Amino acid sequence: MNVLLLGSGGREHALAWKIAASPLLTKLYASPGNPGIGGVAELVKLDMSDHSTVAAFCQEKKIDLVVVGPEGPLVAGIADDLRAWGIRVFGPSKAAARLEGSKGFTKDLCAKFNIPTAAYGRFGDLASARAHVEKTGAPIVIKADGLAAGKGVTIAMTLEEALAALEACFEGAFGAAGAEVVVEEYLTGEEASFFCLCDGTTALPFGTAQDHKRVGDGDTGPNTGGMGAYSPAPVMTAEMTERTMREIVEPTMRGMTNIGSPFAGILFAGLMITDQGPKLIEYNTRFGDPECQVLMMRLKDDLLVLLNAAVDGQLAHMSARWSGEAALTVVMAARGYPGTPEKGSVIRGLEQAEGEGAEIFHAGTAINGGALVANGGRVLNVTATGATVAEAQKKAYAAVDRIDWPQGFFRHDIGWRAIEREKAGAK
Ligand code: AMP
Ligand code: GLY
User: Which of 174, 248, 283, 388 might form a disulfide with 144, Cβ 3.0–4.6 angstroms?
Assistant: First the structure.
């Protein structure tokens, strides 16, 4: 098969690495990719926002499957447009990608199909949102409705913060994405990421993970796209997985079919495991980054076979097997992230790091004058496996230590929650 992978992050490098290992693969193209992806794919520069250019490339190169990494093109309808040209695509339609593209859409779906989630209200103007927040009080959660690159959520511990967040949204801090606001009940519990591979009808559980959103050790500082992750998530026991499937994922699949927008692709449920059980925080309609990196390290089956089955509506006949080992990834970021990262600093020592038994996925890297340089916020994902999370952590940090990049930084405590649990369990 000829495959085209769209995207350029660590998530896409992990997907490329796994797809490249498939005996089904003839040739892998990636656009725009990154230097790491360039090791296993031919990089091409296509304008992802111009769907007919992508389609023309697919016809010319006889692409049998397009795999879409990020949410932007999905929400913009790239899967529908490519399908209209007869091209097979892994990824949801524009209508199904509303599960990520509109928080209000997802909340209404939850209400209609009785899916456990935080209580909410949708507001299109400041006055009515303010009245609701003043009546409800803090803590409370304010969310821009649309895609805001992970920045549209404010967990307001005080009324003042909540009102400031509402004002920012309606003043256009998130552009059109903030023209509508969702106000939510504040949930407490442990968060987990739960993935399902979906074909429109069947949802196949596809691994669990936990990420670390705050930039600093001890979960301090501003939110990021994720500074590290590990899989599996210990809080997702067999019972919790079964409840999540029955109470959240399956009603979502039925609900989406019911409203005429069946969901095919990766359904990524951000969960809060509360005293009452799992509640949906949000859906994403793509793999998580960096969660995908740890999932790919543990997936024993051929990813391409599974993606094909999802595209062809054949998942009812499939299963996915996972390594019993834990996987953990440490994100190395450029100084300045999650604000404005410094670009251009030279990174050395990747081979030595890989010599420690780690897999290094590239995110924001570039080649400049033959040297590997930083070219984004999150730059490298140093990923390792081990019998326990503690072992995987040790291996990953041993590899991080071999990387010579003074302008980079990373968290020193990725996996802490799971490791505390492992220690408590061993006593
Ligand atoms: P999101 O962009 O929706 O993933 O939200 C970012 C983060 O905000 C989540 O990972 C949670 O940590 C937190 N969050 C979102 N909604 C809620 C909620 N209703 N209650 C508590 N925390 C939340
Ligand atoms: N790491 C969180 C996300 O990909 O949305």
Answer: 174
pLDDT in tens, 67-117: 999 999 999 999 999 999 999 999 999 999 999 999 999 999 999 999 999
Cβ < 6 A, ligand 1 pocket = 118, 141, 150, 153, 155, 184-187, 191, 213, 270, 281-282
DSSP sequence for 29-46: EEEE--TTGGGTSEE---
Of the residues 185, 201, 233, the one at which a domain ends: 185
pLDDT score recorded for residue 427: 62
What is the pLDDT of the chain when averaged over all its residues?
Answer: 95
Closest by Cα among 316, 348, 310 to 332:
348
Predicted pLDDT of residue 172: 77
Which tens digit of pLDDT belongs to each residue from 270-286?
999 999 999 999 999 99
Residues 364 and 409 in one domain: yes
Q: Which of 138, 165, 185 is the last residue of a domain?
A: 185
Q: Label the pairing between strands 181-185 and 365-368.
A: unpaired
**Ligand lying nearest the CA atom of residue 283:** 1
Residue nearest to atom 4 of ligand 2 (CA): 288
Residue 107, in any domain of the structure: no
Compute the average pLDDT of residues 48-56: 96
The whole-model pTM stands at: 0.95
Identify the residue whose C-alpha is closest to ligand 1 atom 7: 153
The residue assigned the tokens 């805001």 is 148
Q: Do 211 and 303 lie in a common domain?
A: yes
Tell me the C-alpha distance between 120 and 105, whole Å. Answer: 12
Residue 160 lies in a domain: yes
Neighbours of 176 (CB within 10 A): 12
Segments forming the whole domain that contains residue 132: 119-185
Q: Does residue 234 sit in the same domain as residue 255?
A: yes
For residue 426, pLDDT beyond 90: no
Cα 178 to Cα 186: distance, rounded to the nearest angstrom:
19
> Does 19 lie in the same domain as 76?
yes
Ligand 1 pocket, mutate which of 142, 153, 185 (most atoms under 8 A from CB):
153
**Structure token pair of residue 119:** 């209580």
Region 117-121: mean pLDDT is 93
Residue with CA nearest ligand 1 atom 3 = 282
Same domain, 284 and 330: no
